[in-house]
UniProtKB/TrEMBL annotation:
PANTHER family registered for this protein in UniProt: CHAPERONE PROTEIN SKP
Name recorded for this polypeptide: Periplasmic chaperone for outer membrane proteins Skp
Coiled coil: 34-100
Secretion signal, residue range per the UniProt entry: 1-19
Transmembrane segments: none
Family to which the UniProt record says this protein belongs: Belongs to the Skp family.
GO molecular function: unfolded protein binding
A GO-annotated cellular component: cytosol
Entry keywords, A to Z: Coiled coil, Signal
Length: 162
């Protein structure tokens, strides 16, 4: 029995020592305060708008062609096939643009996350933290380094602008 109590005490002491080296970050707070994230979101919105405008233009051209073919009293089989090819081409273009936009979004967000994670790692190393967790998964405890990360990211941006 003494061995079990001693083992439990050692485990608890070990866990409490380990718990002192846990950092937490509020990732959403960091994102909302990081200019790089805001810039990426703005860029993606502009790209979406540009692509939507281009798609709208192509759809209007298709509808015009469709109207012309349907208004002809004697639309030929060739006209109908041309219309089908145009529709297929339009759908392929839309699918390709969705893929391009998705890839761009993935790349932009990966860059943002990478920038943030580098700073988190630097701060964790300076504060001698063994682990850094998102604050959403921590109920109690840990050293919150969110504000330090936000400040460091802001200072990094100022240096890169000079």
């Amino acid at each position: 029995m003494k061995k079990i109590v001693l083992l439990v005490m050692m485990v608890l002491l070990g866990l409490s020592a380990f718990a002192q080296n846990i950092g937490v970050v509020n990732y959403q707070k960091i994102l909302s305060n990081y200019k790089g994230y805001k810039d990426a979101v703005n860029y993606l919105e502009q790209e979406k708008s540009r692509l939507q405008s281009d798609i709208d233009k192509r759809v209007a051209e298709y509808k015009k062609l469709e109207s012309e073919v349907n208004s002809q009293k004697k639309s030929t089989e060739e006209d109908k096939q041309k219309l089908q090819r145009e529709l297929k081409s339009l759908n392929q273009y839309v699918d390709t643009m969705k893929q391009v936009l998705s890839k761009t979004e993935y790349e932009q967000m990966n860059t943002v996350k990478s920038d943030i994670n580098v700073v988190i790692q630097e701060v964790a190393k300076e504060k001698k933290l063994d682990v850094v967790l998102d604050s959403q998964v921590v109920i109690i405890g840990g050293i919150d380094i969110s504000d330090v990360v936000i400040e460091r990211l802001a200072n990094t941006e100022k240096i890169s602008l000079d």
